[in-house]
Every structure is written in structure tokens, then in C-alpha cells.
Automatic annotation (TrEMBL):
The keyword Magnesium does not apply. Belongs to the D-isomer specific 2-hydroxyacid dehydrogenase family. This is D-3-phosphoglycerate dehydrogenase. Catalyzes the reversible oxidation of 3-phospho-D-glycerate to 3-phosphonooxypyruvate, the first step of the phosphorylated L-serine biosynthesis pathway. Also catalyzes the reversible oxidation of 2-hydroxyglutarate to 2-oxoglutarate. It comes from Longibacter salinarum. It comes from the Bacteria. InterPro entries: ACT-like_dom_sf, ACT_dom, ASB_dom_sf, D-isomer_2_OHA_DH_cat_dom, D-isomer_DH_CS, D-isomer_DH_CS1, D-isomer_DH_NAD-bd, NAD(P)-bd_dom_sf.
Length: 530
């Protein structure tokens, strides 16, 4: 059956063309009530949205076939990321296709504010000729404060430099050197607020940025400051802005975004304030930007649904690495080692460490730890576990995980070790890949042995003395269980050895008990590798 991709916001037709060319079914649903949306979501494998759709936890919960949500743009604050991550749904965006259009809209807003263009236009259209009333302000030599020196912030900086503005920037994640490359002087937020003639916002919306410019900030601003928000509504506190406009502290504000969209009744006074220039979230609405974001996001959604690398994940960063072809065999090995290690435990694991040795590249360490986690959690959790939800489910279950990488590798050119612990109990299962594809377990706890990590196995420790294997073999034969392979991890005659028996059929619990009751046998485990 072909995959279905649901589209619930207007996106450039290139999106539909690309999906159909790849054999996907497109479900274009631009007008809907909640019930209709629920029905369509429940059968979608992929879902493409812009800012107009709110992707709630409830919808994600219903979407049992959903694998990927693609945001044809930057901001993902309309998507319940936590719910998507827990359900193992990949969320990706198109982070730079609309940067230029958004920066251009921001600069247009700044000029509209400085020269009161919309107000003057309205006045003229109403039959007036008010040349004195619309005396503007020059941008040249003024200070522009850029809050959020990311892609759009930098693109705005480049453009406003051409107007001869002095640029200040505030962004906790950007270095002075990077800012200086864009002729932005990096300062703290207070300095920016106190020294800017214009302030423009370009951060994401999150708990840290909500209300970033509020009553207190406006009090510290220069008299007559002008404020532009083309990022997200609510980063500038709308009611505080209205008060500051009414008090004349803020000379003008240009808004493309609102805390609720479309803006509700209570924002009418702000939007209709004579010194406000307001647009209906159109900064990214140009033919060029829409074509770019549609193309970018469709590529990512197709890749996500086809198991190819997704380059712009917003959650589950491991997915980017997990889809690389050269890492697949290592992932399989780490997953199987995780499965085995978990099944050796008496109780539930509390920590998991993956050690990569030899020629296993350093960049794989993190994704291999997620693969081993997936192996562990797929036995433990009630829900399906994948690369997206494994870390968050581990956290929920109190399982700490980490990874290390060591160049030293002993006898093997590549080696992955998975260690699980709970209290005093520790198990280590190590494996290697021979000839690029051949997976082998090479150590279990302190026993060196060589076994294929596949199918059903029974593992037990026994005194290393004649007759032990024959007795176990006899019990299995009587239960009509066929032995496929055997591996012995020996220390010295008379000491405890580890025996790994690969069997073609599941070993009945009663037979396992019989083996466990044999003299000289302990720690019998049945291990199933999927
Ligand atoms: N109005 C519209 O149609 C559009 C709006 N946007 C919005 O514009 C904003 C910026 O987009 P991009 O530049 O593409 O994103 P970006 O991710 O490239 O840049 C965001 C910057 O904000 C910084 N930042 C994060 N928290 C901060 C804080 N507390 N204080 C100061 N800086 C902080 C980050 O370090 C980053 O450098 C986003 O909110 C995005 O959703 C983007 C495109 C179109
Ligand atoms: O990319 C973003 O963050 C935007 O806000 C653009 O939103 P839109 O795709 O125009 O609904």
C-alpha cells in the first residue's frame, strides 16, 4: 500500500508533485472540522503543515500510522514535540528556505515604521494631503538591536548595514566572533534594550523568550523606541506593548505575528493603534520562500518515510546518523547486544553504557547507544521503541545511558560493548563484525566465546567438567528442541564456564527448570533475539 501524506496548510504545488512522483498518495485537506481532521490524521503516514495547523498531543495519539511530521518552515511551536517524540514520530522542518523573505519583510516593516508608510497611504486614500503629519525618522546612524542572532537576525543585520545602522545583538548561543563577522556588537539584553532606537525580535518562542520584551523592558528602553516582531507572537508582551504605545514610550511597532492567530478580539486595540503596522503572518509568504520550504520539507518527509537520512530533524537527532548506510550493521549489532544484555538481568536495568572500540567511528557512539537502548527497551516497554522515542522512554523508566569511545580494541578491529547495571548486578555483552556483515558475540561478562547473536539461545554457567553438555543436550533432545550451534566460554577445567546454545525452537519453561536444577549448572537464561 502506498504511503499517504496529509497536507493541512497551503504549501507550494511542488510538494504534491514530488510526493506523487515518488508514488505517495497525497491527502490535501485545507478546510476541515475537528472530526474530519481526526479521521484523516489517523490514516496518514506523513503530515506536512505550516503555522496554520495546531498539531496537538491528542491528534498525535490518534495517529497510529504516523511516522513523520514535516513543518514547511522554521517554527515548530504549533507542534506538540513532546507528544511526537514519545510516540516515536519524527518531526523535521525546513530551516532556511524562508530566511531571506522573512528578513526582507522585517526590513520592510522597519522602513514602514520609520516613514509611517501605511498610515500615510491610508490618509491619502481617504482624500487627505497631510505632508506635515507624516514626518518620518531616518534609519541612518540609528542603533538597531537584534534579539536572536540566528539565520533571520543575521540576514536582517546584513541588510540594515546598507542603511548605515549601528548593530547591537543579543543571543546567548552566538559568539562575539560570529556576531562580529556580521558587524554586530554582541551585548547583554539590558544594554541592547537601553541603547537601541529600533529593536527587532528573531528568537524562537519558548519559555525563556515568552514575554522577553515586557513592561519592565519597555521602561528601560529609549524614549521613542520602535519595535518589530516578525518571529513569534508573545515574545513581545502584547498588552505591555499597547500600554507603552499609549504612553508614547514606544513610538511605533510593526507586528507580523500574534500570541493567537488569527488575533482575537482583545488584540484589536493593539493592531488598530495608529502607530502600529500589522501584517497577517506573511513574512514567509513569497513565491520563492514557499517553493524552497516546500521542496526542502518534501524531500525530508519522503526520506523519513523511506528510511533515508533526514537532514533537518527537530526531535530524535540520532535519526540523522541512524539512516547512514555505513552505520546500519553497527546499529544492528548494538541493538542485539542490548537485547541480550537486558535478558541476562534479574531485574530491570538502571544504567546502560555503550563502549565503541577500534575502528567503530567516534561519530557513531551516540547513535549506537540509542540502538542498544532500543534493543533493551523493546523488551521492556509496552509500546514500540525507535530512534526517536528511545531516549525519552529511557528517561521515563529511570534508565541512564551513556557512551564512550576508545581507540584500543584488543584482538578485534571493531568492538561494541554493552554494559547494563542494576544495583550490584552488572552484565557486559561485547560483539564485533567480521567481514563487514557477519555479527558475532565475542564476550559475555568475563567469558570469551564466539556466537551468532540471532534467534533463540539458552545461556548458562556450568562447572567445566566432562558430561555437562551431554546432559543438557539430552534434556533438549527429549523436548524435541534442535541445537543449531554451540559456543563455550572457558576459563580452566573445573572452574565455571559459560555455555551458549543456539536452538531452533523455543525451549519450554519446564526444560529450562530441569537444566537449572542440574548439579553444577547455574544462571540459566533463555534469550530471544529479534
Ligand atoms: N513571521 C514568519 O513568517 C517567520 C517567522 N520565523 C520565526 O523567526 C524566528 C527566527 O528564525 P530563524 O532565524 O530561522 O531561527 P534560528 O534558529 O536560525 O535563530 C534563532 C536564534 O535565536 C537565538 N535564541 C534562542 N533563545 C534565545 C534567547 N532567549 N535570547 C536571545 N536569543 C535566543 C538562538 O540562539 C538562535 O541563534 C523563529 O521564531 C521563527 O519561527 C521564521 C520564518 C518566518
Ligand atoms: O517558518 C516560520 O517559522 C514561519 O512562521 C512561517 O510560517 P508560515 O509557514 O508562513 O505559516
Amino acid at each position: 500500500m502506498p504511503h499517504t501524506v496529509l497536507i493541512t496548510d497551503p504549501v507550494d504545488p511542488v510538494c504534491t508533485d514530488m510526493l506523487e512522483n515518488k508514488g505517495f498518495e497525497v491527502d490535501l485537506l485545507l478546510e476541515y472540522d475537528e472530526e474530519t481532521l481526526r479521521e484523516h490524521v489517523s490514516s496518514a503516514n506523513g503530515w506536512i503543515v505550516r503555522s496554520g495547523t495546531t498539531v496537538t498531543a491528542e491528534l498525535i495519539e490518534l495517529a497510529d500510522n504516523l511516522e513523520v511530521i514535516g513543518r514547511a518552515g522554521v517554527g515548530v511551536d504549533n507542534i506538540d514535540l513532546d507528544a511526537a517524540t514519545r510516540k516515536g514520530v519524527l518531526v523535521c522542518n525546513a530551516p532556511d528556505g524562508n530566511t531571506i523573505s522573512t528578513a526582507e519583510h522585517t526590513t520592510a516593516m522597519m522602513q514602514a515604521l520609520a516613514r509611517t508608510i501605511p498610515q500615510a497611504n491610508r490618509s491619502l486614500l481617504s482624500g487627505k494631503w497631510e505632508r506635515k503629519k507624516f514626518s518620518g525618522s531616518e534609519l541612518h546612524s540609528k542603533t538597531l538591536g537584534i534579539v536572536g542572532v540566528g539565520k533571520v537576525g543575521r540576514a536582517v543585520a546584513e541588510r540594515m548595514q546598507g542603511f548605515g545602522m549601528k548593530l547591537l545583538g543579543f543571543d546567548p548561543l552566538v559568539s562575539e566572533e560570529v556576531a562580529a563577522r556580521h558587524d554586530i556588537e554582541l551585548v547583554d539584553l539590558d544594554t541592547l534594550i537601553e541603547n537601541s532606537d529600533f529593536i527587532t525580535i528573531h528568537t524562537p518562542m519558548n519559555e525563556e523568550t515568552r514575554g522577553l520584551l515586557g513592561t519592565e523592558a519597555f521602561e528601560r528602553c529609549k524614549d521613542g523606541v520602535r519595535v518589530v516582531n516578525c518571529a513569534r507572537g508573545g515574545i513581545v508582551d502584547e498588552m505591555a506593548l499597547l500600554d507603552a504605545l499609549k504612553a508614547g514610550k514606544v513610538a511605533g511597532a510593526a507586528l507580523d505575528v500574534y500570541s493567537k492567530e488569527p488575533p482575537p478580539e482583545e488584540l484589536t486595540e493593539l493592531i488598530q493603534h495608529p502607530n502600529v503596522v500589522a501584517t497577517p503572518h506573511i513574512a514567509a509568504t513569497t513565491g520563492a520562500a514557499q517553493e524552497k520550504v516546500a521542496q526542502q520539507i518534501t524531500e525530508q518527509v519522503i526520506n523519513g518515510l523511506m528510511g533515508e537520512p533526514v537532514m533537518t530533524p527537530v526531535n530524535g537527532m540520532a535519526i540523522r546518523m541512524a539512516a547512514q548506510p555505513e552505520v546500519q550493521t553497527y546499529l544492528e549489532l548494538a541493538d542485539r547486544l542490548g537485547q541480550i544484555a537486558y535478558q541476562l538481568m534479574e531485574g530491570n536495568a538502571q544504567s546502560l553504557t555503550v563502549k565503541c572500540r577500534g575502528e567503530v567511528p567516534r561519530r557513531y557512539a551516540e547513535v549506537l547507544s540509542v540502538a542498544a537502548l532500543r534493543g533493551v527497551l523493546n523488551q521492556w516497554a509496552d509500546e514500540p521503541v525507535n530512534f526517536i522515542n528511545a531516549p525519552v522512554l529511557a528517561e521515563d523508566m529511570g534508565l541512564r545511558f551513556s557512551e564512550t569511545r576508545e581507540a584500543e580494541h584488543g584482538s578485534y578491529t571493531n568492538l561494541i560493548e554493552v554494559e547494563v547495571k542494576a544495583g550490584d548486578e552488572t552484565h557486559v555483552v561485547a560483539g564485533t563484525i567480521f567481514h563487514g556483515t557477519d555479527l558475532r558475540i565475542v564476550r559475555i561478562d568475563t567469558y570469551e566465546l564466539e556466537a551468532k547473536p540471532e534467534g533463540e539461545m539458552i545461556l548458562y554457567r556450568n562447572v567445566d567438567r566432562p558430561g555437562m553438555l551431554a546432559t543438557v543436550g539430552d534434556l533438549l533432545a527429549k523436548a524435541n528442541v534442535n541445537i543449531g550451534a554451540l559456543a563455550l566460554g572457558r576459563k580452566a577445567r573445573g572452574e565455571m564456564a559459560l555455555t551458549a546454545v543456539s536452538v531452533d525452537d523455543e525451549v519450554p519453561a519446564a526444560v529450562l527448570e530441569e537444566i537449572a536444577s542440574l548439579d553444577g549448572v547455574e544462571d540459566v537464561r533463555s534469550v530471544k533475539i529479534r
